[in-house]
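Complex 428.
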Amino acid sequence: MRETMNIGVAGLGTVGTSAIKLLEENSELIAARCGKHLHVKAVCARTRGKPRGISLEGFDWVEDATLLASRPDIDLFVELIGGHDNTAKAAVEAAINAGKHVVTANKALLAIHGNAIAKMAEDAGVTLRFEAAVAGGIPVVKSLTESLAGERIRRVLGVMNGTCNFILTRMESNGSSYEETFAEADKLGYLESDPDLDVGGIDAGHKLALLSSIAFGTQVDFAGMDIEGIKRISITDIELARDMGYRVKLLGVARMSDSGLEQRTEPCLVPANSPLGRVENATNIVLLEGETTGPVYLMGAGAGGGPTAAAVIGDIIDIARGRTISTFGQPASTLKKVASTRSSAELAWYIRLLLVDQPGVLARIAAAFGDANVSINRLRQYGHDENGAPVLIVTHHTQREQLNHSLNAVRKTGLSLREPVAIRIEDG
Ligand code: HSE
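Predicted structure with L-homoserine bound:
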């Protein structure tokens, strides 16, 4: 007879209920693959009687997540509560202290408290896994901690918030404003209960912070990240970028350089025909660029009950098989603390200007860029209207600092009628 691993599940939202359903539906297949019977013993959630599409009859109901986490008859605790300073943290800590393995989908918790929690788990001799926390059903944590464990990673880059990608691609396909499309995403139930987590870039930032820790062997440093969401992206920029062969994506980008770790979550342009440029709607994509592997792309469903639950179950199976990988791919005490740096890389930029329409203006603007040593790759004027002459510039690769000098020089000419719009261009 197969050994049983008893599981406690805290949080019965779409991911929790999907995980319970999948564990039941695939129980034979899972048992055959991991050699153990995975049995959900007890559950807890905020409200007991809520319709969830699953029966809770076979499970013990526990009122409190911390009590569930430390129950003696639980071997593994699944935390699907969410949030970083609440019940979830107390419950995960209680599980670790009680010697239980933990599987969580909680990116916020690990982005803020991951170093301490990983250390706690190691000291207690338990395993803590979090595949479901980053890009839902895409096995990106596993790819970094296992398949690419021997690889020096140069860059991690990804579209890791499906809601933002949905909004940006819908704005482009419908020609609609940010506000209209945000309302549509809201109606479809795509937004987190605090929408700023999505459109403010925070959710994507949490995910990036976890991936960069594994990729670069560094302590999780969410506080050191530059974060900007998609609220400033107008339909004008989306359409003009498309005209220049680009699409706007909310990207998480992490790179290590001699000056430190650069981590940014911000709207960027990527070539429209690149893998990142082609990712539509709520789909996620992550690019892991290894020194010898070159670019490795992982694409799929970044959210949703089923895909995220599949990632949770993959982690549970790993633990049932007796695999004991450190949370961030190496012991927490060996993760380096590194300085955070602002954009070490030379990149191309998209600049949108509204200029006074009179003879010699373009020459003076071009000189402002040239004097700052920023080379113009492409320049296009879109006629002129009563407001002025809209002009687009795509620069050659340049340092952020030089670009800032050139934009200051443009402002000083007095020929720029509106604050210039500047968006980075990343290779996708
Ligand atoms: N709100 C997230 C997204 C899903 O839109 O991608 C959960 O991480």
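The first strand starts at residue 3 and ends at 10.
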